[in-house]
Amino acid sequence: MSLFSTLGTGASGMSASSSTLGVIGDNIANVGTTGFKSSRAFYVDMMPGKMGSASGPATLGRGAMLGGISSSFEQGALTQTGGVLDMAVVGNGLFPVSAGGESMYTRDGSFQLDRDGFVTNLSGARLQGYQAEDGVLSSNFGELQLDTGPYPQQATSTVSMAATLTADPDITSSPIAAGTFDGTAAAMGLTELSDAADYDTSLTVYDSLGMPHEVNVVFEATSSTDWTWKAVVDGGEIDLDGDGAPDGEPGQAFELSGGTMSFSGTGDMVAFTQTDTTTAWNWGGAEPFTFTFDGGLDAAGNPTDNGAIRVSGEESSLTSLSQDGFPQGNLVDLAVQPDGQIEAIYDNGQNRVVGGVALVTFAATNQLERTGGNMYRATFASGEPLVGNAEQGANGSVVSRALEASNTDLESEFIAMIKAQRSFSANAGTVRTADETLQELVNLI
């Protein structure tokens, strides 16, 4: 009886070794698979049989059987790819994707945009995440679709300047005081105005259509602590009669706005005024244009955020000059932040959030079911998926333009392969010995 059971015992050992070799072969075959998680087989002994002995009932083992196969979700090495939407998770979490209406999960972050703006993997499954509205992430979780359209233009509303005006200006009679600045042929020329001013600079602003226009800002001292300023444009660009076409005189100054500045004995600004022109004008086709000049104080004498004009014994000089308008921008790149936010980068220098990558964790990640295509399915044993943002709680972070390599350790797999091969040979020897013994028994009978 025991000889026959020995055949089964040896056969079970051979089967176990064969299964182990199969798991090892799968791990080695996927050593180059992105996001692959290696597996291991574990075994349990089979129900022993009862048999008699001199000391009473005894049990005799019947071999081994496959207890299960589990995946190891240890971190794989990261490989930089440069792919715009290639992503890798460092730490806990899987990417949730929708494949044929079913929720699946993967560590393979090889994503791309399809023609409708959905983020998909190479097999077409759509990445799930958080939508963005006007550059702000919403709580709406679903298939992630990015807005790849242009970034709308923005008209200039504030001009900020940081500069030093000399405390020793040339305070003489100036043609600026008696000049006309209505953009007509009788107006002061832009070149003449620049030459007459104690200090001048220029910058580009944008109208409501995103069209650029050059504005000259000139400063004229009336005393060592009091200055006037004017912001002027070329009269040849402006519409004075409302027909949508430029009708000013090219090269002649048209004043958009102007005012005064006063400074203390320590050079700090103590008073500021700004008055816009009362002449009806516009840049053809655009909405009426006005702006706020930020030099350090507003008209009420309150400090502003960005401007800083002061008086000093040094020569007049410009520290910084900026404005908040820009033209329409077209998408040139995408960047994924460690917290999963996807930022769109435009050729007008603007950025905005267009989506957010979600990560999913499980109470027992190693109990997920492999479905092929580098994806997993939730099971009763894995628990329900817990959806959250990257870098939130126990969730890992997202690395942009990189992919996670397979976590298969070839050295360990080859060692395990040798052990499995020897185990198979030893169990085969058990079967062979039992077979020869049975044959000898039959011959004796």
Summarize the structure.
Helix content is 17%, strand content 39%. It has 445 residues and is α+β, with helices and mostly antiparallel strands. The mean pLDDT is 89.
Keyword list:
single chain, about 450 residues, alpha+beta, 3 domains, ten-stranded antiparallel β-sheet, six-stranded antiparallel β-sheet, 4 helices, 32 strands, rod-shaped
Q: How would you describe what is shown here?
A:
The protein is α+β, with helices and mostly antiparallel strands and 445 residues long. The protein has helices spanning 2-29, 175-178, 190-196, 410-444; strands spanning 39-45, 49-51, 58-60, 64-71, 78-80, 87-90, 95-99, 102-106, 111-113, 119-121, 126-133, 136-143, 158-166, 199-206, 212-221, 226-234, 238-239, 253-263, 269-272, 275-276, 282-283, 292-294, 308-312, 317-323, 331-336, 341-346, 351-361, 369-372, 375-377, 386-389, 397-400, 402-404. It has 3 domains: 2-52 and 59-74 and 407-444; 80-151 and 330-404, no CATH class; 167-322, no CATH class. The chain is built from 4 helices and 32 strands. α1 runs antiparallel to α4 (410-444). The relative contact order is 0.20.
